[in-house]
């Protein structure tokens, strides 16, 4: 078995606990890596060995029952994935799977009753070890429960795919193992109880005491645990429907999802031993596959690099923000107001051209607060406070004491310059002036101002509350204090911020527009819309190109394209057909289908491409553009490109964002003469 010298070992600590009503003590095993909740418990080889030894010690004590729990706030979040890159042979991957199965099975096969007291987050192997116990309680304070492996190119490899469907049925298991990971959802404690994952739900304050008392009741026979009979007649139909949904969404691009489906099907009839042996083989195949390696690279970007942005000035330079001004009161501005209000909890004021618009913007914010209260996602006390902090006015002087002013008006450079010229006379010389522009030059916007050094790009992605990326753009004269303040504000907003050079359309929009440009060049050449729309399917992107165009809006896409055409006319070609769509004002999609009225508008060329040819042109365009962006210093490294595409464009983990895929497919070397990532960074094959 491979050892991980960097493993933070989660130790399994055994203590005997006397429980009222029982003659024998209970053996309580606590998982604890000795660190706080910010460094969760996980299972590496040494951690599994410690658990194995603890189960032996607990069993030898002949207790009334054995219970497994975690340190404060954390039960266990699964396998220690820091050791995954060290696995360089299939045999090592098989050994890892077999080790976990052997240790966990001791809880399932124990003649002494076993309980899992899930006191905190339980993900992946953490939930799987709980599933092996005979009974489970869960705390109302447990932050998240789930089996997220499919999202990182793996499968529940320590029994989850076999135990869960036989515990709660195929529909619930398919939701937890497939649907939730692919939609970035987890189970909450109440839902886990309702679905049958947990047998009892207890309040966090007295969770351990209540769990011990409940377990004693089960052992004595005073408490009966009833579990519904599994409907096996619907098993195959449920998985057939799940496969249809996967094919429609992922188009076969995610091997882990297909493997998970196969294992769920196997669980219907197979013995537990045969099912878990199949899990081990599937896990080994996936661990050694490109998609899993790229997924682990993506996971590392999101968990580590996103929290430590590169090139940021020291945070000691950041200025305190006590009031926020937002120029504009439209939908984007109102979304920003709500975000700043919830996270910073300082006065936020909206301004616009007339009182009707201002009132509408403020009303949107208060309505959203009311909805959060109704959904019990915000208490009434906090809501009352926030309602008192939001205001609006047509009088620009209300911004006089604002420390941070952000504009979210129409993408027009002259308009934005005019706005800053007006507000610079009102706000203090130290106030930060941030623009939510999606493509315009920060440097040009600040030109002519008395203090251009305090202008910074602050580019959010729509919907603001959902997408975590924030591109922070440094203009040529933006100073360190402004930049440090911007990053501290971004952190408080709970966004993942990436430092970007002031270059046309920055990162995400520049790359997405390059793909759109290549696709519409194919349309102009005569390729039908339905062909270009499926061209990217083998990549498993979150949206097809025409659906994405509908979401962004053809007019917005065309406007960004114009900006990039002016900057790089040889690469970003203006499409007459896209212009026709914009001028017609028709939706490109109707009822999830391409609008036939839009198809009638198009001029048909005489050199149509196949879907494969369209996809390769788009990938070639991405490779060329990324290399140019790195050469220009738009971001520090290729990893920042990938982080932006994952968090801002929803590019999937199994691609590693984009550069690992371009490397392993050979596109990067063929187009640019070199790979984007050094050998070993994403562990993808040449």
In terms of topology, how is this protein built?
Layout: E1 11-17, E2 26-32, H1 45-60, E3 66-70, E4 74-76, H2 90-108, E5 114-118, E6 121-123, H3 125-132, E7 135-139, E8 145-146, H4 160-168, H5 170-182, H6 189-195, E9 200-202, H7 207-220, H8 235-250, H9 255-266, H10 272-287, H11 290-303, E10 324-327, H12 331-344, E11 348-351, H13 355-374, H14 380-389, E12 390-393, E13 404-407, H15 413-424, E14 432-435, H16 442-446, E15 455-459, E16 469-474, H17 480-492, E17 496-501, H18 508-524, H19 529-534, H20 545-552, H21 554-567, H22 576-584, E18 589-590, E19 593-594, H23 596-601, H24 611-632, H25 638-649, H26 659-664, H27 667-672
Helix pairs in contact: 1-2, 2-3, 2-10, 4-5, 5-8, 5-9, 8-9, 9-10, 12-13, 13-14, 18-21, 18-24, 20-21
Kindly describe this structure.
The protein is α/β, with parallel strands linked by helices. The protein contains 27 helices and 19 strands. The strands form four sheets. Strands 12-11-10-13-14-15-16-17 form an eight-stranded mixed beta sheet, sandwiched between helices. Helix 1 packs parallel to helix 2. The longest helix has 22 residues, at 611-632. It is globular. The chain starts with 10 loop residues before the first strand and ends in a 14-residue tail after the last helix.
Properties at a glance:
686 residues; alpha/beta; eight-stranded mixed β-sheet; six-stranded mixed β-sheet; 27 helices
